[in-house]
Structures are given as structure tokens and as C-alpha cells.
Design brief:
This protein is mainly β. The protein has no helices and 13 strands. GO terms for molecular function: carbohydrate binding; galactoside binding; laminin binding.
């Protein structure tokens, strides 16, 4: 699957009833992740926060944290991601927008990974 600049990725996800966190990773491979999107219900001292990061050559960058948290355990939600060479733009299920720098600066990514306590209901690239 290729995700290119100007396209929109729609993700429908359902966190489990006892979800601690889940993450969506977009990049080239597990060692080069342009967007690490990590909603945390309660993990490692973090509660109801979204953590963003990137990884280059296996090394994590500086985390960005956002207190907007529209996710609910056990409830399906959808959000949208698009990007350009400078930034990723995420529109959450409550309509709020956030962005994160495209630190790798590429216009096409083929690696996609979901982990944690949530189930992907649907994925669509337009």
C-alpha cells in the first residue's frame, strides 16, 4: 500500500474496552517512521493524551504531545490523515485538527503498522 502526498487516509478504529493505548505508524519501515500517532488512555503515567513522534535510522525523535483526546474505550471512531513534504495533518473524530512535522520529508510512504489495544475496522486511501 502506498500513501502519497495529497491523498487522504481514512482510518476507522475501535479501541478495546480496556484499551491502554494504540498506535498507527506510517513510514518506510520499522526503523524509519515518519508519523507515530499514539493515543494513550492510560499508560506510563500518561492519561488521555496523544503522543506524536518519528523515527529515523532506528532513533526516535522528540515527542510532541496533544491534550485533545476524543477517543473512548470500546467506541468506534474515525479520523483522517493527509500530508505534504512539511507536515502531516490529522482530523480527529470530534472535528479537531492537529499537525506534526514530516521529519523524513518524503512524499510517499509504503509502510503502515497498527499496534496496541485497538482493532482496525476500516482503512481507505483516496
Amino acid at each position: 500500500m502506498a500513501f502519497k502526498e495529497g491523498q487522504e487516509l481514512k482510518i476507522r478504529v475501535k479501541p478495546s474496552d480496556d484499551c491502554c493505548s494504540f498506535s498507527i505508524n506510517i513510514g518506510h519501515d520499522p526503523e524509519n517512521i515518519a508519523l507515530h500517532f499514539n493515543p494513550r488512555f492510560e499508560v506510563g503515567g500518561d492519561t488521555n493524551i496523544i503522543v506524536f513522534n518519528s523515527k529515523s535510522g532506528g532513533c526516535w525523535g522528540e515527542e510532541h504531545r496533544n491534550m485533545v483526546f476524543p477517543f473512548c474505550r470500546g467506541e468506534e471512531c474515525k479520523f483522517y490523515i493527509n500530508f505534504n513534504m512539511e507536515s502531516f495533518y490529522i482530523r480527529l473524530c470530534d472535528g479537531s485538527m492537529m499537525d506534526f512535522p514530516n521529519r523524513l520529508g518524503d512524499v510517499k510512504y509504503k509502510y503502515f503498522d497498527v499496534s496496541g489495544d485497538a482493532r482496525i475496522i476500516g482503512l481507505k486511501i483516496k
